[in-house]
Each structure stands twice: as C-alpha cells, then as structure tokens.
Design a protein that fits this description.
Elements (H helix, E strand, L loop, with lengths): L6 H8 L2 E5 L3 H17 L6 E5 L1 H10 L4 H9 L8 E2 L9 H4 L7 H7 L7 E2 L1 H11 L11 E8 L5 E5 L9 E3 L4 H8 L8 E3 L2 E5 L1 H4 L3 H5 L5 E5 L13 H26 L5 E5 L15 H23 L4
Parallel strand pairs: 1-2, 1-10, 2-5, 6-7, 10-11
Antiparallel strand pairs: 3-4, 5-6, 5-9, 8-9
C-alpha cells in the first residue's frame, strides 16, 4: 500500500473539508469507505459530508459516529443477504388487469402491464444492518458534523436534501432529525428497491438525477471538496447479464454526473479547491449488487491507495 502523505502538510493546505460521495452500488460503498480510511490515515476527518445512494449510506454512517475503520469493518463483514433479499409476495406478481392486453396483439406492452411488481428486491435486511451499526434507527450526528443525504420525491421528481443543519436561502434543503429511513430513501434505486415513505411522501434514490451531490456541499462554502466516484466510465466489454446491464447504466450516469458537476464547479470563480478521487484506469471490479467480503477488501484497499495518491499530489503542488 502507498505510504500515507504528510499529515501536517495536508491539513495546512486543505482548510475546512467537505467529502462528497457518489453512488454506484456495492463498489461505490466500498470505494467510498476506502477513501474515508485514506483520509483518516492523513489525520483528516471531514466535517461536511454529502452523499447519495451508496454514498448516502456511507456519509450517514460516518456522521452517526462510525470511524472510517468501523465503516471498512462493516462492509468487509457483509454479504448480499445482509443488504437485500428476494421478494416473497409472489401472489402480487401477476396483474390481472394487464393480462388482458396479452391477447390484444400488443405483446410487449401487455407483458409489462401484466407484472404487478414495481420493484424487485426487499431492502429490509439493509434496514436491520443500518440500525445495528448505528445502535438504533436514529442517526445521532456527531457534534460539529454536517451531513446532507439526497433523495428524490416521487410525487414531484424534485431532489430533496435531508440534513441536520441547512444553509440559509436553500429551499431544497430539509432540516430533519435524520434516521435510517432517510439513508435508505437515498439508496432505494428505482425498480430494484421499494421507495421509502417519510411523513407521507415516497422517496427514491437520487442517483439517476443527482448522483454526485457536489452542489449541496458548495452551499456550505468549504475550503476544499473531495469528490469521490467509483466509476471510471469504462466497461470491460458488452454486458453479459441483466445485472451487468444495470451496472453499466449506473456507471455511465455516475461518470457523466461527476465530470459535469466537477468541471462546471472548477470553471466558476471563487470555487473551493476540488480534489477528484477515482479508481485508477486499470482497476475494474464488476457487481453492482455484489456485496462480498473479498470484493470489499479489494475495492476498499484501492480506495485507500487512491486517497493517498490524491493527497500526496496536493502536498507536492499538483492539482
């Protein structure tokens, strides 16, 4: 593993740090945890945390008191069964009202309309895992820490920023007593997982419209923003399965969102210092929904190394 950068030099150059974690399934959860551990190696613990989807889970856990070491231990101890399970209510799978269209000649539309499920996987195991890790359903945000978790309100399609401390003049921010429900709402990828209802409103993963929650972090005017993405925007070849196809869609969206927001912010006046941390070009790990300890250790180690690389570049005066 790369040696950690000089702590004093990094602290002096970065000032107040925001950590922005994007989504991207299991790989994003692992890579973000590795980057957080790499920052901790340099003595850094950002006090402003912004995340969506898997990144939302990570920032919620960090804000709720888990150290980066705790977070890596958590992910390396989990399997897919600890995050989701297949739906068991198979009697709701057929939709009688749609079955009739199968006989009208519109086979494709009839097939889709005859399926009563609007999501495929039960996220109750993830709820139990989060509650256990946090010691209860509430996210007891550590003193001096601000956390922002992004989700989409299904009734309006608008992005909502759940936070423990909203900046002034920002109506999309919603000050709340953060709970596991807010974290799950941010990570409830449409079609894969059910939306999460909070105060009568259904919320879903914001990854498809705001995968890199850089914008809300900027409203708090940090000195440095560390932007983390687990995607390099590449594919090792054509998708071989539905799982591969889903992962490719999310990876492409993630990559586009990161670069768009990053480049736009970097081009504006008075922007904070931006540090982009991403996997190296040769690094590839597949499995959007593959939660596996061995994969976790591999990706976390790489995330840690990439954080060291980015911070070392700062101390040497490189962008």
């Amino acid at each position: 593993m790369n040696s950690a950068p000089d702590t004093a030099a990094v602290e002096d150059s970065l000032g107040r740090i925001a950590l922005v974690l994007s989504g991207g399934g299991a790989r994003a959860a692992y890579f973000g945890a590795g980057v957080a551990a790499g920052l901790a190696d340099a003595g850094l613990r950002p006090t402003l945390l912004s995340g969506t989807s898997a990144g939302g889970l990570n920032v919620g856990l960090l804000a709720g008191g888990l150290t980066p070491s705790d977070l890596t231990d958590l992910w390396t101890g989990l399997h897919s069964r600890d995050v989701y399970r297949p739906r068991l209510d198979v009697w709701r799978l057929p939709r009688p009202a749609g079955l009739a269209r199968l006989f009208t000649g519109d086979l494709l539309a009839g097939t889709l309309d005859s399926v009563g499920w609007t999501w495929l996987l039960d996220s109750e195991p993830a709820r139990r895992t989060l509650v256990s890790a946090l010691g209860g359903p509430r996210v007891r945000v550590a003193p001096g820490v601000t956390v922002v978790v992004s989700a989409v309100a299904e009734s309006t399609g608008g992005v909502v920023r759940f936070t423990n401390a909203a900046p002034r003049g920002a109506p999309e921010f919603r000050p709340v007593d953060l709970t596991v429900d807010h974290l799950l709402a941010s990570a409830s990828a449409p079609v894969l997982f059910p939306p999460v209802t909070i105060d009568g409103e259904a919320y879903a993963d914001a990854g498809m419209v705001a995968n890199t929650p850089l914008a809300p972090a900027l409203d708090y005017r940090p000195d440095t923003v560390i932007v983390v993405t687990s995607s390099t925007g590449r594919s090792g070849g054509p998708a071989q399965s539905l799982g591969d196809a889903i992962a490719l869609v999310f990876d492409n969206v993630a990559r586009f969102s990161v670069l768009r927001d990053y480049r736009h912010t970097a081009s504006t006046r008075r922007s904070p210092r931006l540090v982009l941390v991403e996997p190296s070009e040769e690094f590839e790990v597949s499995g959007f929904l593959r939660f596996d300890p061995d994969v976790a250790r591999t990706v976390i180690t790489h995330g840690r190394q990439r954080a060291h690389h980015a911070l070392t570049a700062i101390t040497r005066g490189r962008p």
